Amino acid sequence: MSDTDALKKDLEALRSDLRELAEHVRHSGEKRYQDGVNQARHAYDDLRSEASKRSKEVGAEIEARPFTSVFAAFGIGLVLGKLLR
């Protein structure tokens, strides 16, 4: 076997190794991306559930104490109005 043939064989092996490495990197990147998407969806679902729960609690509090709620909203409006002027 000549040096040229050995070099061609080594180059082909290197190409094969590089293809495998690129494929591995691609799969790893896809997995990390999918993990991130799943984590974001889970966090979104948790936040949405918590917001819904809090909204119901606030609604129940307003129904239980309507006058207090109106006065509190009025007071908060006055304070924000003064601060934003």
- Please state the overall shape, judged from the principal axes of the Cα atoms: rod-shaped
Spans of at least 5 consecutive residues whose pLDDT stays below 50 are none
- Helices and strands, in N-to-C order? HH
Give the overall pLDDT as a whole number. Answer: 93
Q: Over all CA atoms, what is the radius of gyration?
A: 31 Å
Helix content: over 70%
The total count of strands amounts to 0
Query: What is the helix tally?
Result: 2
Q: How would you sum up the major sheet?
A: none
> What amount of the residues lies in strands?
under 5%
Structural class determined from secondary elements: mainly alpha
Domains (count)? 1
Please report the distance between the alpha carbons of the first and last residues: 88 Å
In short:
This is DUF883 domain-containing protein. The chain is mainly α and 85 residues long. It has two helices and no strands.
List the helices and strands and how they pair.
Blueprint: H1 3-64, H2 66-84
Helix pairs in contact: 1-2
If you had to describe this structure to a student in words, what would you say it looks like?
The chain is an all-alpha fold and 85 residues long. It has one domain (3-84). 95% of the residues lie in helices and 0% in strands. The mean pLDDT is 93. This is DUF883 domain-containing protein.
